[in-house]
Amino acid sequence: MKHLVLTFFLCLSITPAVQSNNSLPIVPKPAKESTSGEQVSLQKKWDIFIPSQLSVSREYLSSIFKEFDIEIVYTTDKKNALIIVNEDKKLAKNPEAYQLQIGGKGKITIFASSENGVLYAFQSLSQIVKADDNTVALPVCTITDEPAFPWRAFMLDESRHFHGMETVKKLLDEMARLKMNTFHWHLVDDPGWRIEIKKYPELTKTGSLRNFSYRDLTPEKWDETYPGKKTFYTQDEIREVVKFAADRGIKIMPEIEVPGHASAAIASYSWLGASSNKEGKGIWGDLYNVTDPKVEAFLHDVLDEVIELFPSKLLHIGGDEADYSHWRNNSQIVQFMEDNHIPTFSDLQVWSINRFSKYLASKGVKMMGWNEITGDNIRNEAHIEEGQSEKLAEGTIVHFWDGDISLVNKAIEKDYNVVNSNRHFTYLDYPYEVISLEKA
Question: How far is 378 from 249, CA to CA, in rounded Å?
Fold first, then answer.
């Protein structure tokens, strides 16, 4: 049986319950907690023992407690350490589980199944610290916790609005506080291309000089409007962000859109587009001509450079909102479909997505995509024919974002893992009238 997991675009990984008077002020709410009602007072120098086999970033752990002016010292003297971390693979089936014990004599003991469990224990510890000028007060308590969902994600769309590394790092710090473990980095879409691809420099030279508000500016006009403004990440910057996230227990999944939302790429290389190739210039909303071996080779080259940068071995292929009129109006594509017995444009999309899934799998990478990749007509639009012949490749993760909720069950029944990001509950760029805080 496959599982349904949830992702939120800006919310908690576990919904906090209403706190009682003795409840600890920890967000997300721990699975179990018990308190004695007593407190212990500690000095602001903490000796911490962490087993060498746990590769936790000492620098990051220390930074968690800087706001309290607590000095962290890492020691190999387990017996005399104030905080002792123990690796315990049998603690729970959940690999991110932890237990935090604060004793009446001030000894702090952590049991964790993995590095992430260690990080989460220290995050919980940081939320119950009460510090004054010289000392720290902590409640005597035991916290036993594990996340309710294995996928706890935030998506940032930097194609439409580029934010830059400083903002992304602040976001990752807040994700870490909330024990979220996946950053869905939407780097490519119609408004802009935000990641350096060395083999195809025009993707950033031309494709990055645009955004959601200014999609039709020429590169010259962009430079005039925004002199010296860089709106993409170099590969070295990507590596820096990936390392920063990993230190916080967060894996990064990049999104590289196929076959639609490709306007920025096609503006850079018009031969990629089903309509743009005929016009000799980029057409907004065009689709990649996925039947052209040269276009497929281009996308393979791009994917090769991207997956080298992201050790998560996860890649989001997009797959949503493809305007099939660009394929319908291309006689070569229509002929290809006839020759290969592909009955609908939805089937052509699944056919192409499956080829990329197979390619990524050969590199040890798992593919994910918005729920249009199933071939379903998710909005029951009259101009779209549902897929008839092609079946989405096994092992692909279906990312539900739109359509009737029955589509989630349909995908699960077909043995796909599903991430639920129902846009009516999780898209916090929507107005408050659509998604209230209570609804989110």
Answer: 34
Query: How many other C-beta atoms lie within 10 A of the C-beta of residue 436?
Result: 9
Catalytic residue list? 189, 261, 321
431 within 8 A of 439, measured Cβ to Cβ: no
Name residue 186's beta-bridge partners: 157, 255
Do the beta carbons of residue 407 and residue 371 sit within 8 Å? yes
Nearest to 141 by CA among 113, 108, 111, 179: 108
176 Cβ contact partners less than 8 Å away, ≥ 6 residues apart: 119, 123, 248, 249, 250
- Per-residue pLDDT of the chain (440 residues), as tens digits, is 344 454 444 333 333 333 345 789 999 999 999 999 999 999 999 999 999 999 999 999 999 999 999 999 999 999 999 999 999 999 999 999 999 999 999 999 999 999 999 999 999 999 999 999 999 999 999 999 999 999 999 999 999 999 999 999 999 999 999 999 999 999 999 999 999 999 999 999 999 999 888 877 888 888 888 898 999 999 999 999 999 999 999 999 999 999 999 999 999 999 999 999 999 999 999 999 999 999 999 999 999 999 999 999 999 999 999 999 999 999 999 999 999 999 999 999 999 999 999 999 999 999 999 999 999 999 999 889 999 999 999 999 999 999 999 999 999 999 999 999 999 999 988 999 889 888 87
Strands 397-400 and 418-420: parallel
Contacts of 287 (CB under 8 A, 6+ apart): 259, 260, 262, 273, 274, 275, 322, 323, 324, 326, 327
C-alpha–C-alpha distance, residues 105 and 120, integer Å: 23
Q: What is the dihedral of CA 333, 336, 340, 341, to 10 degrees?
A: 60
How many CB atoms are closer than 10 A to CB 258?
Answer: 27
Which domains, from first to last, does the chain contain? 29-145 (3.30.379.10), 153-426 (3.20.20.80)
Cβ(377)–Cβ(385) under 8 Å?
A: yes
